[in-house]
Amino acid sequence: MTTATAATDFLNISDLSYAYPGSSTYALKDVSLRVAPGEFACVVGPSGCGKSTLLNILSGLAAPTAGSVTMDGTALVVDGVEQHTERPRLGYLFQDARLLPWRTVRKNIELALKSAKVPRAQWHERTDRYLTMCEIGQFAESWPGNLSGGQRQRVAIARALAIEPACVFMDEPFSTLDEVTGRSLRGKLLDLWQTTGQTFVFITHSIREAVFLADHVYVMAPGPGRVLERVTIDIPRPRRYESPAIAEVEGRMIDSVLQYWSTDDAPAGDVS
User: Fold this and answer.
1) Alpha carbon distances (Å) from 118 to 93, 98, 106, 113
2) Cβ-contact 114, 145 below 8 angstroms
3) Which of 142, 212, 226, 263 would you label with 148, given CA atoms 20 to 30 Å apart?
């Protein structure tokens, strides 16, 4: 898949900072990044670098202290002030599937469709379509407790895509899965991305995972969270998770991060 190009980035973040309420301690400081329409972007960094905080700000769950955010041509935050404009429809995928155990797989997805104000007449067909795309259609009437962890996460992917969002945010969705299941779902996720053409922003602590998935990777460091560099991944698709090309890029990125940390002079913002 070739990343879509446009005069305006789908997501543009400029000098974004977040201080904990009532504190001078920052979780994020002067973070800048940009994501093109239809791009698969990854944000990678250790625990405590503010990756989840960044997604919370973008989804409207947290208010930034400073900076600007534009999404799909709409200014959401200007100079640290929320504009209270309607965000584009967003899908969200978490570390755990977060399915309601007292609702069947179908009813879990229909609840998301209801929240997204999708007309009820479309629910059945759309649920079936995305469950089939995620190769989990045979479990539409099953209870979440009867599914494996990988199956539940497939349902969560189907739920995120079924509302047909402009962008899908993913917060380490495969980190709790076994290696074989994780690899299988990474491949399936890329298939779905190519099929839907949606913009994906994927949070991970695994550099290998980021290199395998992304068009561009933003490498972050903690204390407070800031962007060390923006890395273009020019490895042709389809990619193999264990390929030497991916291992080589992963190694260069690790060396770069270690160099920044050893000199303690990491730059803030976008370093394209």
Assistant:
1) 19, 21, 15, 5
2) no
3) 212
Please say whether the beta carbons of 100 and 108 come within 8 A: yes
Predicted TM-score (pTM) of this structure: 0.90
In this structure, the number of other CB atoms found within 10 A of the CB of residue 213 comes to 24
∠ CA 113-115-118, nearest 5°, is 45
Structure tokens that stand for 265 in this block: 């002079």
Q: Distance between CA 89 and CA 198 in Å, rounded?
A: 11
204: left (phi over 0), alpha (psi -120 to 50) or beta: beta
Sign of the Cα pseudo-torsion (260, 265, 266, 267, in order)? negative
Query: Distance (Å, rounded) from C-alpha 28 to C-alpha 34?
Result: 16
Residues 6+ apart with CB under 8 A from 38: 1, 3, 4, 10, 197, 198, 199
Each residue's pLDDT tens digit, 82-110 = 888 888 999 999 888 999 999 999 999 99
Task: State which of 5-9, 35-39, 52-56 shows the largest mean pLDDT.
Answer: 35-39
